Amino acid sequence: MPTSSKQPIQSNWFTLNPKLTTFLFFIILVAVISLITQQRYQIIKENREKDINAMLESVELRLDQLLKNSQNIALTVALTIDQQGKPRNFEKVAAEIMKANPSLQGVQLVPDGIIKYMYPVKGNEEAIGLDLFKLSVFNELEAKKAIRLRKMYFQGPVELVQGGKGVIGRLPLYIDNKFWGFSAVVIKLDQLLKIAGLENDNFSYYRFQFSKINPLTNEEEFFIPGEHKYAGNTYKTKTFEEGDWKIYLTDTRKIVADYQLGGLMGFGLLVTVLSSYLLLRLLNKHRQLFLMVDQQSDMLHVVDSKYKTIFANAAIGIGRVNSITGEFIEANAFLCKLFGYSEKELTSKKIKSLIHVDDLAVDAYDFKRLRNNEIRQFSSVRRYVNKNQQVIWANAIISPLWEEGEKPSQHIVIIEDITPQVIYEEQLIASKKYAEELINSMEGIVWEASIKDNFANTFVSSKVYDILGYTQYEWSSEIGFFLEKLYYEDKERVTEYLDKELFLRKHHEYEYRMVAKDGSIIWIRDTLTVEPSIEAPEKLRGIMMNITMIKEAEETLHKSYELVNEQNKRLLNFSYIVSHNLRSHASNIDGISSLISNAETDTERNEMIKLLRKVVVNLNDTLYNLNNIVNIQTSMDLVKEPLNLLDYINHAIQTQESQILNKNAEIIVNVGEDVFVYFNKAYLDSVLLNLISNALRYSHALRKPVIEIICEPLGGGYILRIKDNGVGIDLPKNGERLFGLNQTFHGNSDARGFGLFITKNQVEAMGDHIEVESKIGEGTTFSIVFS
């Protein structure tokens, strides 16, 4: 390494002008501190913007879930409307919805824009009967907008006629492509803000604001109390098309007042003043140093020797480079080892051949400034590439070996390997980002799976224990755990969907059932994303929401609808029966009464009176049977309890013992002693007695009666079959009338046609059903399915 030569004092302009030099140095330091302060200002601003974005994303997720839930509620309420536009079980369904959603003010059905159906009525009386299209121009515009959009649209926040502020989500409904009205939900404004996380009291210097453009005045209205103008502050906004809302999040702190900037500027000024003072003293003494150069010449040789020793054995990479050609002149052992070259190989290379291609432009810019004497030294973190093409992160310091004013000749490169630190920092940043994503996740089971590792679960939130009962370890400990816990009826459907649809688009939303740890069935709505893209998928991320209550409400609504239809059919059938039977008896009585009044002798009159008594007895029997049917179909308080099926079968057989002995019948019973069915005691006795007595009554005259009674598991219940080898029933001919009233098919004198009708009504009154299989001359099998 060459040393500086002795120069006359007069040739050094800076030494001769110490005050001017100090002033220039002061200006440069102030400029550097200003630049650093500006950069720090930008960093603080960017960090605050990131925090605001994260908070807004959380609010967006919460509010989006609330709006989707409101739409599901509106759809559920809409399902109560039949094809004729009449609500069925509105109050019952609405009560369940309100119970599960305490944030709601109420739910509405608004046929033709008039609020006719409201739940709860208490507290909402003022809203009932309002006509949305006549109430005000504002309401008319908002209602028509929902119709125009043909989807859920939220009006408000507005002052509700029943008191308080809220938003009203209206879903336009159509029957046969004709507008019927709206299914609507009313959400309290304070509840909406709370669920969305728009509560300023929870933050010391962040402020939310919630606004909407008034369609009449085209002015922006704000609904959260407090200031909504923060000039010069950092803020971000989010818009929601479902209600034309805009959410502001503002950081009320002034960046210029940040203590870090103040401290940085104060420290910088202090260092500048102190450095300038020291420089002035240094320059004043510099003159004296030139006089000592000759005396130090011998000492310089000693120092040069020490330098070479330090250069060769230093624990960091040091190299001397030709500033014109860029080739290494010499390199120490550490630098050779770092790059994997021998000293001979390295000294034949240019330094830019070792710099990573992405960092060449920055290095060229900095070195150009160094050669132009704009700077005397620079350092930066950059990447190098060693002999094995491995990337090395390093902190590089470049210092010139030419004096100011001289032409560039050589410079020193000091390289410190910081690859382990960079890797650690990258891992730390990734971990922090990962944790932030989890913390900001919405309610539900947040999960992640690796596509490359055969969809192995890499993460699941603790919410999995609350919803499904499994621990995080259980969920992630084995591959395929998710598919194993799918409900068996949904497994094939979900597997087929994943095979065919997963990589066709980035975002998915799917519903299925899972088996919880306690054995219960949970409905899940899974919203997942393919990351980072469908072109290069690496992992899946999603949120599993528990929608069991919504599904149960839909199922209850469906069952209620079917029950109403079935009751209507029974009522219509019963009216036909009553009309036919009573009219027939009335006609007989009327005819016999006319004959009695026209009888010419007492003998004829007595015969007509006997006939009239017989008709009256038949009428009384008919009324008795009709009354039994009415009791079965209208009883709402029948007690269902677990009954031992075998005990009741044995009791029915004992009751028919005389008939069994008379016909020499064989009864085969294959029913377990541990079989219990939920049924009414009296009804079970009646059903078994009717079916066993029919099997005996309609036995075949040419063979011994054999009756088999078999019970087998079916799903979560049982199926009971009573099979005989009797005369059989012509089902193609009589199947539709088999369980009808007053229907007989074999001409037995003691047949009344009430037994099977009553049996079917009793079975269906318990929520079960009865089936029949039969062939003429071979026998009949009645099957009762106990749920």
Helix and strand layout, with pairings?
Layout: H1 13-16, H2 18-78, H3 90-100, E1 104-111, E2 117-119, H4 132-135, H5 137-149, E3 153-159, E4 165-175, E5 178-188, H6 189-196, E6 206-213, E7 220-222, E8 234-240, E9 245-251, H7 259-291, H8 297-313, E10 317-322, E11 328-331, H9 333-339, H10 343-346, H11 360-371, E12 378-385, E13 391-400, E14 410-417, H12 419-439, E15 445-450, E16 456-460, H13 463-468, H14 472-476, H15 481-484, H16 488-501, E17 507-515, E18 521-531, E19 539-546, H17 548-598, H18 602-634, E20 641-644, H19 645-655, H20 657-663, E21 666-670, E22 676-679, H21 681-697, E23 706-714, E24 717-724, H22 731-734, H23 755-765, E25 769-775, E26 779-786
Parallel strand pairs: 21-23
Antiparallel strand pairs: 1-2, 1-5, 3-4, 4-5, 6-7, 6-9, 8-9, 10-11, 10-14, 12-13, 13-14, 15-16, 15-19, 17-18, 18-19, 20-22, 23-24, 24-26, 25-26
Helix pairs in contact: 2-7, 3-17, 17-18, 18-23, 19-21, 21-23
**Mean pLDDT over all positions:** 80
The Rg value, from CA coordinates, equals: 46 Å
Number of self-contained structural domains: 5
Counting DSSP H or I runs of 4 or more residues, the number of helices is 23
CATH class of the largest domain: Alpha Beta
Quickly give the structural class: alpha+beta
Q: What descriptors fit this protein?
A:
5-stranded antiparallel beta sheet, 23 helices, 5 domains, Beta-Lactamase, alpha+beta, elongated
Textual characterization of the structure:
The chain has 787 residues and is an alpha+beta fold. It has five domains: 34-278, CHASE domain (Beta-Lactamase, 2-Layer Sandwich), CATH 3.30.450.350; 311-428, PAS domain (Beta-Lactamase); 443-544, 2-Layer Sandwich (Beta-Lactamase), CATH 3.30.450; 553-634; 641-786, Histidine kinase-like ATPase, C-terminal domain (Heat Shock Protein 90, 2-Layer Sandwich). Helix content is 45%, strand content 24%. It contains 23 helices and 26 strands. The strands form six sheets. A five-stranded antiparallel beta sheet has the order 2-1-5-4-3, with helices on both faces. A hairpin with a 5-residue loop joins strand 17 and strand 18. Helix 3 packs antiparallel against helix 17.
